[in-house]
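Explain the record.
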Amino acid sequence: FQVFKIEVLMSGRKHFVEKRYSEFHALHKKLKKFIRTPEMPSKHVRNWVPKVLEQRRQGLELYLQTVILENEELPKIFLDFLNVRHVPSLPKAESCGSFDETESEESSKLSHQPVLLFLRDPYVLPKAN
């Protein structure tokens, strides 16, 4: 099975989280109940074709970035997925709306940092011809 390593940068601190595609899919199913979610990359791929794997990786990266950019308030399940524990408190965080009563403590405000988007993976060297 394939594992994706997610780099999480928050308030100048960096950590890594490793998740399988099935964990992304489970997150997506939960998030759909609370927020409008972006498209999820296809569940069925021919596993070991490098180009397809790279497209899936890019799709999952775009998925996470889109959820963050389009939601001022992120559900706790999303923060837990990224292993984010300490969210800096912002003004009005106490009075922000929630999805429903059970979700009231399950969401937090985040300040958004710019996201760098690479057209190619910066950690992979180009092939020499």
Helices lie at 21-31, 50-70, 76-81. Residues 3-82 form a domain with the PX Domain fold (CATH 3.30.1520.10). Residues 89-113 have pLDDT under 50 and may be disordered.
